Batch of 2 targets.
Target 1
Amino acid sequence: MEKICEFKSVRLKMKEIPMGEKGAMILRKDYDIAGAMDHRLVLGPRMILSHRAWIANLVPVVMAAALFFALLYGLMTAVMGVDFSSAGGRAAVIALIASLSVLSLASWAILSFMGAVKGLKRAHVVEMRGSGNWILVDSAEWDRFHRIMTAPKEDEEKAE
């Protein structure tokens, strides 16, 4: 099972421009649309599973699951009046732990997969084009991105 990623990389430059009567300088994002480069990356399971995003996403998911478990446990005790010392209460705790474990594993897998793909795409662009601020745009979304980025320039040209 391979994932094929087709995307474009656009350099993001920060430009200082004067604003106002006193000429206070503000930073403005400037995208180098003309210098956009096409990329095609084939990611295998080994590349995705060996990425560091799997470890980085484990701690936040475990913390969120523990918080969610504590909130549900408190609600079941205070609001619903569940007696956890009885047999039915123990079954409720086991069901709660099992459902939160499955939910945590699924969210960890989804977040880590997305993080690994994003990290591998960024590493590929840095390897091909060098370090810098890069915006990665999927090929399917390129037309929309290009339209949004060129619209203000067209408006400025019409105003002049």
Note: The longest helix spans residues 87-129.
Target 2
Amino acid sequence: MRFPIFLMTLLIASAAFAEHPPANPEQGRSRLLELFIWKTSDELKLPTDVEHKFGDIVRNLNEKRKANGERMEKAIHRLDELTRAQNSDASTTATPAAKPETKALDSALAEYRKALQEYQKLQTDELNQLKAILAPDKLARYLVVKNELTEKLKTFLSKPNEAAPALDKNGKPLGTPKVIEEK
């Protein structure tokens, strides 16, 4: 029962952000992170001391993921610049296209590879750090809840104009309403 309520809360919060976005994107990201921490700790029924540790771990890892994501975007942007330069050179000359400078391309690919490896390391760090404070059943439940929320949020964000379906107490969509006429 709690999980569908959480999803509805998350969807309502997301819709509120869409209608009245925060002054800056960082503030909105922070709100969603705090909502995630609050609802996940509630779902896992964490004691207060563990809840504080859990929140600190999630916030810390989120900051690292953000920095790593920026690093990955920078590497992709550099790869895009290099390959676009190659394509524009090919369209302006009649000779075979000159390859982008190999060292620059190799460097950009190496930077992306490092960022990708760091992303994978952060995923492992998350498991290891949470394993230190959560029992195996709570850690397993955390992973399930996190995955479900991620999928729901992806679905919601990919279809922003569609309203979330009303759910019954088992989390299944409700049918169409029936009109009852009095005689």
Note: The chain is about 75% helix and 0% strand.
